């Protein structure tokens, strides 16, 4: 991992202290999601830009953030994941021939991230700096309980098509998911919001194209509970869900 709240993709540890679970849950839950359209538009400072944030030294990529210009030509960037503003310069971030303007910030890192393309859809919308990715509504940290109402066993985090699992496996013979066997990887989404599926936001596939893994272990619906202000996993097959996987309220 590195300074701030992201972690580089590494193999999972079978057992993890409660403090680590709390850290991942609290920080990942801050990942920006699509704002409510009923919120009043905000005033954008002249010269401000909305861009992804990157760290050249760590190789890490962060979500969209707003930056205000300084007289020096640099930008002051603020985001929920950092407690104070960061000084940044604007330059292209290029990975595999794909280049995107980004805020380059200096961070002290104790780990190196896998370089990946930055979000090219960042823009001010109704005065808010946000991503244009439709599946951003699924991003975040989901606490996993192998028994409904039981202790938190781990956290699976979703962000920009990549997931990370940190925690312990269920008891032998218990319900499991593909992200437990493969703690770091890529996922695909099928967005459903607005398609008549009610509270179903989309379907996440943690092992796309791997037919050897049962559908119930690799694919889940992500639903929204407006009353409790959480998002939660729901099985794509008919079953008694003894497990519980949901975001923090």
Strands of the biggest beta sheet: in what spatial order?
Answer: 1-2-3-4-5
Please, how many helices? Answer: 3
- Which sequence of SSEs, written as H and E, runs from N to C? HEEEEEEEEEEHEEEHEEE
First and last CA, distance:
25 Å
Q: What is the helix content?
A: under 10%
Strand content is 35-45%
- The domain tally reads 2
Assign an overall shape.
Answer: elongated
Structural class, from secondary structure content? mainly beta
- Average of per-residue pLDDT values: 82
Quaternary assembly: single chain
Low-confidence stretches: 1-41
Structural description of this entry:
The chain is mainly beta and 249 residues long. The protein contains 3 helices and 16 strands. It has 2 domains: 126 residues, no CATH class; 82 residues, no CATH class. The longest helix is centred in the N-terminal third of the chain and has 11 residues. The radius of gyration is 19 Å and the shape is elongated.
What's the arrangement of secondary structure elements?
Elements: H1 18-28, E1 49-55, E2 60-69, E3 75-78, E4 86-95, E5 98-105, E6 123-125, E7 128-130, E8 140-145, E9 154-159, E10 162-167, H2 178-181, E11 184-186, E12 188-191, E13 200-205, H3 215-218, E14 219-225, E15 230-235, E16 244-246
Parallel strand pairs: 1-5
Antiparallel strand pairs: 1-2, 2-3, 3-4, 4-5, 6-7, 8-9, 8-16, 9-10, 10-11, 12-13, 13-14, 14-15
């Amino acid at each position: 991992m590195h300074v701030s709240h992201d972690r580089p993709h590494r193999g999972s540890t079978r057992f993890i202290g409660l403090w680590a679970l709390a850290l991942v849950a609290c920080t990942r839950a801050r990942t920006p999601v699509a704002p409510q359209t009923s919120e009043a538009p905000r005033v954008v400072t002249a010269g401000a830009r909305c861009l992804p944030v990157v760290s050249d030294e760590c190789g890490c990529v962060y979500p969209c953030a707003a930056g205000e210009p300084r007289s020096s030509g640099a930008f002051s960037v603020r985001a929920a994941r950092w407690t104070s503003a960061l000084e940044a310069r604007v330059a292209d971030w290029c990975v595999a021939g794909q280049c995107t303007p980004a805020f380059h910030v200096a961070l002290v890192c104790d780990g190196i991230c896998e370089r990946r393309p930055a979000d090219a859809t960042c823009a001010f919308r109704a005065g808010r700096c946000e991503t244009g990715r439709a599946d951003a509504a699924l991003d975040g940290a989901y606490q996993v309980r192998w028994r409904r109402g039981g202790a938190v066993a781990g956290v699976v985090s979703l962000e920009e098509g990549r997931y990370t699992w940190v925690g312990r496996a269920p008891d032998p013979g218990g319900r499991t998911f593909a992200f437990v066997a493969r703690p770091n990887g890529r996922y695909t989404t099928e967005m459903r919001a607005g398609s008549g599926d009610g509270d179903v936001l989309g379907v996440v596939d943690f092992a796309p194209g791997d037919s050897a893994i049962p559908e119930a272990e690799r694919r889940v619906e992500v639903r929204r509970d407006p009353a409790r202000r959480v998002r939660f996993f729901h099985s794509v097959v008919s079953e008694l869900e003894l497990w519980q996987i949901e975001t923090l309220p």
